[in-house]
Amino acid sequence: MKLHLLLATAGSIALVACSEGPTPDAAAPASDATEGGNILLQEWDTPFGVPPFDQIHSEDYLPAMRAGMDEENAEIDAIVENADAPTFDNTIVALERSGETLGKVRRVFYALNSAHADDVIKETAKTIAPELAAHRDNISLNKALFDRVLTVFEQRDTLDLSGEQKKLLEETHKQFVRSGANLDDKAQARLREINTELAELSEQFDDNLLNETNDFELLVTDRADLGALPASLVALAAEEARRRGHDCECWAFTLQRPSINPFLQYSPNRELRKKIFDGYAMRGDNDNEYDNKAIVARTVSLRAERAEMMGYDSHAAFVLSDNMAESPDRVYELLDQIWEPALRVAKAERADLQAMLEADGIDDRLRAWDWRYYTEKVRKAKYDVDEDALRPYFEVHAVRDGVFSVANKLFGLQFEVRDDLPKWHPDQQVYEVKEADGTHLAILYLDYFARETKRGGAWMNALRPQSNLDGFVTPIVTNNFNFPAPTEDSPSLLSLTEAETFFHEFGHALHGMFSNVTYRSLAGTSVPRDFVEFPSQEMENWMRTPEVLGMFAKHYQTGEPMPQEIVDKILASAKFNQGFITVEYMAAAYLDMAYHTLDTPEPVEPRAFENAAMADINLIEEIIPRYRSGYFQHIFSGGYSAGYYSYIWSEVLDADAFMAFRETSLFDHDTAASYREQILSKGGTRPGMELYRNFRGRDPEIGPLLENRGLN
Ligand SMILES: [Zn+2]
Question: pTM higher than 0.70, yes or no?
Fold first, then answer.
């Protein structure tokens, strides 16, 4: 299963991003704002109020966002200057209503910035980021505003609020507190220092890692050392060598995963495998100018200090109080339940691989750099499915129809293509999504293909979140992919992973489209990080069934269904090598938790600390954490600190929730209706665990995840 990444962009615009990909970053000329009527600041008289992409100029965004900030500042002033005593309505709801224009423009802007950015948009993003950050700070550190919020918050139990109103109040209050609003001036000044230093440290961490990664190369001069490396990858490695100025019959490998992983899988040369493996594993830990250990130590220390200022035992306690897991204990409780079975299976896998090593006549123990090589041999023998042979069964529109069919069978949804609506790119398809009875539900934009103006990966966002504060506002959501574009000879044919990605992103889209809440800040995917991947991963479960594959996976030329033998291999391969995959991932999750449950700012020595943390869980030598300290970007620069566990947390939820369909039937109407009502429609209006219990009638259980991964 893929790992997914949730990114939060400036302010409150959440972008649900599901894979790691580079953000396009190119210098762009400065642009002047257009004068006169800015379409972004006007009412949109388009069908369903969709953004008038055909009338918006890239130059319009910067002045519109600035105008939006001015408007919000005036609204905040009005709240603060209100002579009436603070109430839920005149303070909390007024805040919720504020910033309408800024939110509207910003959502469209960041959608474009990710999916179809020109130079003006890229430049605008750089210009506006610090302005938006300062704008956010001005609001969250506005003492008079916080005093009003606090007054209402302190009356929360006597105000006769609905569950959703109370949640809005709590979330509003929490955002202020977490920004430091209730600290005294001295502490606020220290908080700003800490935040600034942390931001600098995270940039240095990335710079060092980039340098360490780029500085390494493995040059192979003997063709035999490439073993059975597929021809396309051999050609890439030869090209890489030429690109690096080597004028020889040779092949260059780098520490980028698409380069190192195939080498570790295919090269029969143990010495070279060790060399590149060590190069990868020691990044940031070479005691040179790019060493990241001091940065790790300082980062962890500052986070502990900040947590203490905020009144928490540790950084993890601070972060998790905002998540479904709620506390470090709950995270450990989950990890510990999965760890022992995973380690047991990994040890069994190790024994098999050891036997293969010995059968090769090697008189040694299996080492970390041997694992992928021997695993690939097993995979090839037992589960080999040629990706290129699969693609004809996953033509992009066939996959789309499969996704839509599942949504129709589960929820009765209907999809009507709307070629009349404006798009940001001609390749996009726009659908009106309707209920079974024809009622309008939402607008869905699908943007399928990779292109230079789009960043990597796949993601969902809401161009307009659902709300019902001043009349019901229906959602407008997008799914974005980097599928191969059609060519003259062939339509867009997806890999198995890409087809899964389509189901995954559509799960996020459903979460946005089924939202049925009052306040837009609690709508759709506005949920904690360890909950947000649950609805998306849930959709992947349907795809991985023979029934659903049978519905849509048909050869684009012949119309033949996918052969049973291939279906069987796809389903069986889901359990392959899961001891290794789970242990490697979980070791990193434990490392993240170890750093961030420290309850003192005393600096640690990262190498010794990591070794001790891994010894604590009895990690076997042949597996290292998926990320070691020196290159653990998720937690030291990526906003996932005390959050790396959330991938498997979400997977526990999706596996256990899918059992509710297994126990009834794949498209059981009552179960689907309950899943929609209790989970998908509720957004962030209630704590995640409460929503889950309402759907499942009990807490999530790990059994189905162990079963899916073959760890039971
Ligand atoms: Zn996702």
Answer: yes
